[in-house]
Amino acid sequence: MTDVxxxxxxxxxxxxxxxxxxxxxxxxxxALGVLFAIGILAAAGLLxxxxxxxxxxxxxxxxxxxxxxxxxxxxxxxxxxxxxAIDKHIRVVIFYDRLSTGLKRVFNVAISLVxxxxxxxxxxxxxxxxxxxxxxxxxxxxxxxxxxAWNPPYPGLLKIFLFVILILLVVQFSIFTVNYLxxxxxx
Length: 187
Description:
The chain crosses the membrane at residues 28-48, 68-85, 106-127, 160-181. This protein has helices spanning 2-13, 23-55, 64-85, 93-96, 101-134, 154-182. It has 187 residues and is mainly α.
């Protein structure tokens, strides 16, 4: 009985592996996910620090709230790429699960291709946002800041990060499209 419980706990505590069709790129995305998980833990620690500073020492910080929002946003944005690599993106399984193996392959190719095209469009939109957030109208590099009393460049950095992640999504969905086209047999 103890072995069953230990095995169950071990399987629930393990991060999901990327699907084989994600390739080496998907394995790298999966491995980097740990950094963003650590970022969430750091954000929780910073929130605890802020509560202690504010309510115990009556000395609230200027920087914790914005840093927590920034770390959380980074993890959230990375989560899209991570979900794609482990093939946990949105899919209407009530229909998909009823398809034959051959039709599933066709749907996988079509879904990957549509996601690739959508990621390209979103990348272009993100690039337009990066242009406004990273350069002045005169062409000088200057990151957009939050406008708060602390005024960190988090908004500009986050827009650049979103752009990079969207480009990586294009890469991931390109890999999926090619690998699903090559694949024969069961999913």
